[in-house]
Amino acid sequence: MKIEAVDLFCGVGGLTCGLRAAGVDVRAGYDIDTACAFPYEANNAAPFECKSVDQVSGEELAHWYSPGAVRLLAGCAPCQPFSTLANTRDETDEKKWGLLYEFARLVRELQPELVTMENVPRVANHAPYGEFVATLRELGYHVDARRVRCADYGIPQERRRFVLVASRLGAIRLPAPHGTAPITVRDAIGHLPALAAGETDPHDPLHKARSLTPLNLERIRASSPGGTWEDWPLALRAPCHRAQSGASFRSVYARMEWGAPAPTITTQSHNFGTGRFGHPTQDRAISLREAAILQSFPHDYRFVAEGQEIHFSSVGRMIGNAVPPKLGELVGKTFIDHIGALHEAGQCPTLLNSVSN
What we know:
Layout: E1 3-8, H1 14-22, E2 25-31, H2 37-44, E3 48-50, H3 58-62, E4 70-75, H4 94-110, E5 114-119, H5 127-138, E6 142-149, E7 160-167, H6 185-189, E8 200-201, E9 204-208, H7 214-221, H8 239-242, H9 288-294, H10 312-321, H11 325-344, H12 348-356
Parallel strand pairs: 1-2, 1-4, 2-3, 4-5
Antiparallel strand pairs: 5-7, 6-7, 8-9
Helix pairs in contact: 1-11, 4-5
């Protein structure tokens, strides 16, 4: 049975890329960020629909699927409302949670055979998530959801995410971690050409490192892999470091370690001062290409059209906000194996009836 998908909140296509690698036919992606249109379409051979989900109907989504296909609806809503910064916000303000409610509405209208969602781990602590799962169960979905450590699934970073998979066709479960040694920073980016701060690889415009001020150049030279700014001479420390409150911020102005996975790649991972984003041995922050590879994007993934200027802020935001493609591949393989198991168990008539309904 062929699985076809529509990717809501698709961004540059991290989830779509991973689903396609697993064998899922992604028919379209929806997002409101126009900057994501080029990378999504250039890398994924699927159309980008610049449209807010609250303007989309289940009837519209249904037109993307072929007759008889197993339909997957993916919806990785923006995670800002569920972050640690949202702890004190009023959950009764539906505008903050509307995207997850809209996703639930589209599931109800379309009733696809398969559903997946990815978000920050804290999403499970909030009422809108509970209501989303209640909607799935009410509609007859079997649900498996858990917090995952990306490094356990072949992604070279310590990102933690919450992943949900659901099926109307039968019980489904995310696979256990690989049980193999994690991919390290050296494994992922150690082969790339060396750069100085402010340089760009002439053969890859995305392998581009941000310039450093003279002070920050001194600071990174005084930094050791896995160390902190506490290793610096006092003269290099900022006033915030000297303050008592600064003691808790040890993972800024720091280098990665060759022998460990990277920290979570954020929208600011090209900046030395915003996390442990210093290259392990070169005196610079990681390049945009290195950030993309640590997110598990293919080495040739394109984020801007040829000849267009590459801006750190916009490309960094697209990379940091993306679903790691390898995580998408995990989800896609989970669904492929799920359908395969149903087929082997002789449950194809049930499957076909569900699809036709």
